[in-house]
Amino acid sequence: MPRSKKRSNKGGGQPRRVQPFSDEDASIETLSHCSSFSDSVSVAEEGGDVCEEATQEDFEYKLKGFIDSTMDKSTKARQSALGGLKTAMASKILYEFILERRMTITDSIERCLKKGKGDEQCAAASLACLLCIQLGAGIESEDVFKTLKPIFKNILADGTANIQTRQACATSLGVCSLVAADDILDVYATMECFESLFAKSYVKEDGTRSVYNAQTTVLHINALLSWTLLLTICSNTEVKKILKKHLPKLPSLLDCDDVNMRIAAGETLALLFELARDVDAEFEYEDLESLCAKLRALATDGNKHRAKNDKRKQRPVFRDVLRAVEEGEFQTEMIKFGAERMYIDSWVIKRTYDAFTEFVGSGMNYHLQANEFIRNVFELGPPMMVDAATLKAMKISRFERHLYNAAAFKARTKARNKFRDKRVDIGEFI
After folding, report:
1. Structure-model confidence comparison of residues 41 and 253, the more confident one
2. In the chain, how long is the greatest CA-to-CA distance?
3. Whole-prediction pTM value?
4. Rounded distance between C-alpha atoms, residue 405 and residue 371, angstroms
């Protein structure tokens, strides 16, 4: 994200040449090595420092093989290598390893985006995000982003490009801009790029709405969510401009047939109202009653023409959105990771957390513990150093875990029963 940066003395060195993986080597078995690396490390600790060092060397050797395989002639091998690097970066902190090879990895991503197709391009776009998250906000990630940003924007603007690739680029461009953009004016320009996409779903001046297929709608949703993500770092002056331009139009997206578009629009409105009240405590929206009526209808939606799953999915979201718009409140969530806790107490933090989680997945808790950049974003301070004895003391026994899971299952079942259809079939009696 835009801020002053210091250049590292270390350059992006080329990795030593290792024998490329064949298609068979770069299979699911190879990928599983990365996903289970954290487990292998815990076993290595019990076996001693020698075993741990050997495991680390083996892991890095595999990563070097993945990097080399991104240049392989086989599409399957390239996709498999990209997947292996994604899994490793999502589950571990690899800053030192990546720092020396960042330009090689960037070149591979650039090549896959330009010459690859479909799934390969999507994997490369996701890997670009993870690379920036690993490097953090600094000159190194800036260099990566300056290389890839024009490619992302070209793909987004190309109506003939693969639609799934455009969807992936819309999401990746947003996160990479948040992490690595060094000029806030570049961020605003990127937001305009997103606006040109999702604004097509707005209702026109004559009251009509353009009809798009499901895949194009997903593209507009991704563009809207990335735009909302970058909105969290805009200046107060820019927020005022955006409020004037988009607040009257965004409510029209609540009438979209796609449930995910309705939810994305609702969360964007909640975040906009939150920012507006931060900028001006006396902020008032002229058409508040009409907007709240629409949000209340979505929070209690009982229309028979909509699928049950869609209604169940949107109701709790719009209850929270209505509370945010009407009363300026947010339902705080607690995230526990290791010995620490983080509280998501605003729509700004929620949008940022959701964006990072989309890429690191189940590794988010690990990154919250050890990734300095992510900890800085959420103001968690420097990573805590916890020794093995403390970690062991924090672990609960298998019996305690069983009791906890049983209690959680019982509570979850009770909660879900409230939403299940309680109608029963009545037999015919003679």
Report:
1. 253
2. 89
3. 0.79
4. 29
